[in-house]
């Protein structure tokens, strides 16, 4: 038998700080080579830290000097966007402008449906306005646009399903626009999406039993405009708005009652929110995208 040497090479996507090698329960000094007589029972474990970093686009033209990609360990991150605004507001440290999304947020994701015209429609946002769209396939932009995170007004509020959340005050955050909120503009005006950090007030909705009387439905009542609810008009051509109840109208009750589902989209375990100059962006590993619009290069 002869001894042999094992050399360690740290890939560019990690760092020596925090890297660890464990051989048969013994911690080794990294990246010092290990020379020994090896046996089939030897077990080597490597622990390599994942860190955020940016890489500049391979283009020497001055106008592209600030265009960079964001990576997390070996994973190239892509931002959910259909183009246009690609400006990020970077800080001195990565933690100043890009933060991980907690795994617990997946339990706060919902989609809201109604059945009419012999089809199932789901409430969706597109270009910051709302309409009822036909139930989309997963992994598409329509699925993203039909998913909302319910932000509890009171952090102490707890519920397992929305049907159990009677009276709970919530705000709606679009899945692909973190940090923005769905707001109403008053009765008979459409719902829109705004960035509350820019001075817009947040709209709070109360989750109440569906006005149509069915056990499986809920309605969303404005906390500030009592008796006014999120309303679809039971039409795919009409926008979603806030409408106020004036009498016992069956059509009104149906138009304000939604079946809640687990969100059509879910956060990847590796997901981040990056602060933009004009809006925040949801970043996920490029390999997790299926049929959604995205960008990998941003102005940083």
Automatic annotation (TrEMBL):
GO molecular function list: alpha-L-arabinofuranosidase activity
InterPro entries given in the database record: AbfB_ABD_sf
GO annotation, biological process: L-arabinose metabolic process
UniProt-listed SUPFAM superfamilies: AbfB domain
Protein name per UniProt: Uncharacterized protein
Source organism: Mucuna pruriens (Velvet bean)
